[in-house]
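Troubleshooting: if your tokenizer reports a length mismatch, compare against these two reference records.
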Amino acid sequence: MKALSFVAKSGTGKTTLLEKVITELKQRGYRIGVIKHDAHKFDIDHPGKDSYRLTAAGADTMLISSPEKLALVKKHDVSPPVEELLSTYFYDVDLVLTEGFKMSSLPKIEVHRKERSATLLCRGEQHDSTLIAVASDEALELDVPVLDLNNPAQVAEFVEKRIIHATN
């Protein structure tokens, strides 16, 4: 499974960059999956909806399906490892991009914005060997490529060459 995680400190612009990179990769004909890591509790169901009522009644797994999409709500005691999520749910895509999963073994692109922080997550106190690039709005001297945060086509090109077309 080809997967890549975008990591950054909160408020840096991970989601905005991911949106643009996904658009670029879709225009190139790739099927893209995304996993968003949420360290907090979230709820995609809303009170009053049938799916919410069924989950609230005690369903451990609830799937809602329509002609266009499906959504799965599955209760668990601990968050499954990203590798399990990849193998279970993303067998039909060319690439999975994740947002977050700072502690995973996935290759990572760190998003850096100078106004947000002077330090990096993966090249600060910790040296994350899975870091393959940094997308930044300032020039940085690093041991990995520094991509232009404001040039999603360049980031998509890097992802395409380094992850999608990589030979293992």
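Reference record two:
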Amino acid sequence: MDVPDLTDDLVDRIARQSDAQSGAYSIRELERIRDNNLVAMMRALKARNWGAGALLNRADTGLQAANDAVLDYPDIADIGQPIETVARAVPLDWTDYNGHMNEAKYLQVFGDATDRFMIIVGCDAGYIATGGSYFTAETHIRHLDEIHAGQRIRVATICLNGQGKKMHVFHELWQDDRLCATGEHILIHVSLTTRRPSEPSARIARRIGTIEAAHAALPRPDGVGRCVGAPR
């Protein structure tokens, strides 16, 4: 290959070009940009189940199998309280032109929370492989406050109904002590063979019923059952 000599002039030229490209950012900001890009690449690899992403998927599967082997609810301190289903930082690429979290990402966060709750009640990859799963039938999201890149967020989930084929959950999205959004979701258990509603397994019915009964003693969350435009 035709490699240029590493002269002082070349070093100065590279430095000037580097400063022109990144000089508007501090070292800390560049670190965040780097980390956000690395996380985005890892998410893409996980979605394609390739390379390091495949390794992460295998690790996730192994952790879930280990959890199921130990206890019914291994990582829930108190089943009678709202269950933490998401805890993460907001990446830079989740923000929009207004400088806060894009509304589509609220749905993604609540979708991740629902997926986590499904795993907790037993509707994990192994169960889905047997031909059963939950499909979302209805969603209502309230946007209550702004969320910015880098902030730590968490979702607390309450099970309002887990009887028969229906699963009704209510998510609260928090940033520290600020309630920033709520998501109310109704899911229906289906057979992946017929694509029609079906009864969940006895194990799932038992687990979701236990959580529903424990959450029945909680105060009814503000916003449950609201429709678009309804007064507070």
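Descriptive notes for reference record two:
- The beta strands are 83-89, 132-143, 152-161, 166-175, 178-191, 196-197.
- DSSP finds six helices and six strands in the chain.
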